[in-house]
Amino acid sequence: MKNFKILILVCFILAFAKAASQQTTTTYPQPGVDACLLKSSLINPSSRSIHQATANYDLKYVRLELDTDPDVAIISGTVTSHFEAVGAINQITFDLANNMNVSQVTQRGVPLTYINNGNDELVIDLPATQNNAVLDSLSVTYSGNPIASGFGSFAQTTHNNAGIIWTLSEPYGAKAWWPCKQDLNDKIDQTEVIIHTPAGNTGVSNGLLLSETTTPTGKRFRWQHNYPIPAYLIAIAVTNYARYTDLVGSGATALPIDNYVYPEDLATAQASTAVTVPIMNFFETTFGAYPYRSEKYGHAQFGWGGGMEHTTISFMGGFSRGLIAHELAHQWFGNKVTCGSWQDIWLNESFATYATGMTVEHLDGSSSFKSWRMNANNRATTSTNGSVYVPAQDTLSVGRVFNSNLSYYKGSMVLHMLREKIGNTDFQQTLQNYLNDPQLSFNYAKTPDFKAIAAATSGQNLTEFFADWIYGEGYPQHTINWSATPTGITMNYQQLPSHSSVSLFEVALPVKITGVTGQEQWEVLNINNLNENFSISVPFNVATVEIDPDVATISKNNTATLGIGDAFAKAEFQLFPNPTSNTFQIITDTSVLTDLKIYDLHGRLILDYKDQLEARPAMVFTAPQISGIYFIKLTSEKGAVTKKLMVR
Q1: Closest CA to 186 of 77, 61, 97, 293
Q2: pLDDT over 90 for what percent of the chain?
Q3: What is the rounded end-to-end Cα distance, in angstroms, of the chain?
Q4: Measuring CA to CA, which residue among 366, 77, 69 is closest to residue 201?
Q5: Are residues 301 and 395 in the same domain?
Q6: Contacts of 561 (CB under 8 A, 6+ apart)
Q7: At 318, phi and psi to the nearest 5?
Q8: Can you list the alpha helix ranges (DSSP code H) found in 366-516?
Q9: CATH code at 510?
């Protein structure tokens, strides 16, 4: 999820304004804003808790039979749940919003007693004790006008004068529109969604469309999904969709990409979604086979400017390539393997964000990927505090859970740093091992799970790496003071962490050394102290030193300058005047100048005064005649240094 083009603060302002006005219409973001950031930012705080009362059963199968009219913000139906008891149970609890009306609960046709306890819980008394591991079922018939949790959960609006209903339940919104178990500790093994809707509309949901039939009152769409799925990824969208299909591959193994779009946007969507095919091919090569190949992938257009990665059917407010890549990547990272708590949301969002960056690298090349990283790093360092891992006390703040700078961009840059640290081969293998781990695949994962797999795959100890970059807050600021020596340069390195939670960011810091004639040498400084010195052999005269110019790491406000403590560089040789229009003088204390050469910005030798030094005791030299910036290479018995001269 999704485009990150609006501040979370705006979301909350809109939320509270809406709540205060009690209007029935919903204000939607402009096209291009990030639906994932906004999708649940207006959920009532009381609805954000995860109810532990639902932990005493394991859902095996759920069938939702729903009646919807996209012109009316009402839903009604029956949800049948098959569940296995965890221990002996006499009651079962479902998450369901207080405002929804339950008309009956039955078990094998027998009515059961129930209450809505006012805490968004439907508590049902079982007719007898259900013993551990015993499978049983019950059905809840209900209806209501779901409270729109801001921009998500359940929405009814229009497009081109046609009504549409859609849902977006992440993180805590499923209970707004159906009785469910929305904890991140149980996936439903199999689901079926049956949508009744007036003629002229299409009902879309997860999995395979088993049937589409005409009824006396309209149309009936029956969907079945045969993979484990959390409640928040179950979704419906109903409107007058136009449908078309792209194919990945051909023949019996072809994977359909079914697209449900507004009729008025059909031509534009068809042109835009075609890129899904090469992206799918790239992801399957990189991450492994698409997890739901026996069913489908697809897009359903809805009323957001971003998207939501509902399993097998991403809901899309637009069809930019970046959004298509992000939502598709979630089918592996977020759907096949789902974060085991909202503290671990980066396992969903950072991974999908970095997959989007990898798509840029794959389709556009290294230069575009560098630009992508520059933007990601800028976003990651927007604030001096904040960790990728969400603190426990912040999980009830949807704005914090889905903070784009941290849960998306900073985490994605950490993944790039991990890739640089362990190498591309081990990084790709780590991702595949993570996705295919038998304890995690089609299940839940937490940060220690991924860390353990990355460490085992690479053979590296990643404890400090995760402590600094995932659990720690902020970022480093790097400073290098460098000086020339007869054999190269010396560097004094200093680091200033932006937040006290990290005393030192241990990092492999790339440094680019450029010579006066354009030569390049790359070095990696393994930073283990806040202040340390490095001696680098360089076979040419150095003009500049740059800190991580390719943006391989997270950092901000870095500086690399000629060392102010170097007597040779600063005290014993000075250029005066600088800038100059005709001549300049070398001012020295004790060193004897043995060579002086002038180079232009392209590294070309312009003037060589080596054989004229004895004839110039006043050390006055003629500057180049053309205005511009030049490099003056000065050599004495102590070594060589390069200074910059500006000619007007």
Answers
A1: 61
A2: 79
A3: 52
A4: 69
A5: no
A6: 480, 481, 482
A7: -160, 175
A8: 366-380, 398-401, 411-422, 424-436, 447-458, 463-466
A9: 2.60.40.1840
What pLDDT is attached to residue 642?
79
Closest C-alpha to 34, from 308, 276, 371: 308
Ordered DSSP codes for 16-75: HHHHHHT-SS---PPTTS-HHHHTTTT--GGG----GGGGGEEEEEEEEEEEE-TTSS-E
Task: Quote the tokens at residue 71.
Answer: 């012109």
**38, 69 contact by CB (below 8 A):** no
Residue 327 pLDDT class (50, 70, 90 cuts): very high
Write out the two tokens for 113: 């007693």
Residue 454, domain extent: 344-471
The β-bridge partners of 479 are 494, 559
Same domain, 96 and 195: yes
Directed axis angle between helix 447-458 and helix 411-422, to 10°? 20
* Structure confidence by residue, pLDDT tens digits, 224-242: 999 999 999 999 999 999 9
**Residue 48 and residue 141 in contact, taking contact as beta carbons nearer than 8 Å:** no
Query: Which is nearest to 477 in space by CA: 452, 457, 459, 494?
Result: 494
Q: Considering 402, 437, 471, which residue would you say is the last residue of a domain? A: 471
Residues 333 and 352 in one domain: no
303, part of any domain: yes
Residues 97 and 161 in one domain: yes
In 3D space, the residue among 378, 255, 345 whose CA is nearest the CA of residue 37 turns out to be: 345
Of 273, 195, 262, 181, give the one whose Cα is nearest residue 229.
181
What are 220's two structure tokens? 């009936």
**Cα angle, residue 548 at apex, residues 383 and 423 outer, rounded to 5°:** 100
Read off the pTM.
0.84
Q: Which helix (H) or strand (E) holds 277?
A: helix 276-287
Binned at pLDDT 50, 70 and 90, residue 335 comes out as very high
Cis peptide before 577 (omega within 30 of 0): yes
Residue 283: pLDDT over 90: yes
Which of 108, 109, 107 lies closest to 91 in space, CA to CA?
107
Amino acid at 218: G
Closest CA to 442 of 549, 338, 366, 521: 338
Check the CA dihedral 526-527-528-534 and report its sign: positive
